[in-house]
Amino acid sequence: MKVTITRADFLSDRQGRTFCDVANDTEVRFQFVLDFFSDESRQRRLEESEIHHDRPPLAGVVRELESLPAVDKFLASRSSNRTKRLRQAIGVTVRMVMERLGWVKTGKKGSLGVRVSAAGPGRAAKARHNTGGLAFWFLRAERYTRPEGMPYVSVRERVQRRGRSGTQSKMA
Q: How far from 172 is each of 63, 131, 159, 167, CA to CA, in Å?
């Protein structure tokens, strides 16, 4: 099932309306972001990231998103304070898509990368990026679940269950 997030949808959303500066910024061209996340194959990857890879939905498309010249150029050429608004607006867009696909927020964040230290004079104003992990510009992203529960149990849950039952399987 494909969902489309329009500019009007975004600006009427309870969180989206707080990002009208991003939606109206001529440097960002936020419509490009909305079109990116309104693509059915990308929405499938958002869901598969949670279901099959136990990662935040953004992990399913973040490399493609960051590789787009317009996105990379903006994130690289501005201070992290300025780009934070765009990154947050992207998070709101992902939430809107996931909720329309029937998912709910867990209230937890999942890692997308390891950030370079901002220590030192003058470094806080420069564009900062990750030094490891999946994403170059995004650090964390919201996790989601299905209201009826997830189809697969996480490794952590499996370990906890095995510890409680005291059983261990042996390979034949």
A: 41, 43, 21, 16
Task: Give the number of other Cβ atoms within 10 Å of residue 149's Cβ.
Answer: 8
Whether 47 maps to a domain, the answer reads yes
| Domains identified in the chain, total number | 1
User: What is the number of alpha carbons within 13 Å of residue 82 lying toward its C-beta?
Assistant: 12
In a domain, 120, yes or no: yes
Tens of pLDDT, residues 154-172: 888 889 888 876 555 555 4
Domain that holds residue 148: 7-165
* CB 83, CB 127: distance < 8 Å: yes
Assign 105 to helix, strand or coil: strand
> Looking at the domain assignment, is residue 67 inside a domain?
yes
Q: How far apart are CA 126 and CA 135, in angstroms?
A: 18
Residue type, 162: R
What is this structure's pTM? Answer: 0.84
CA atoms of 50 and 154, how far apart (whole Å): 11
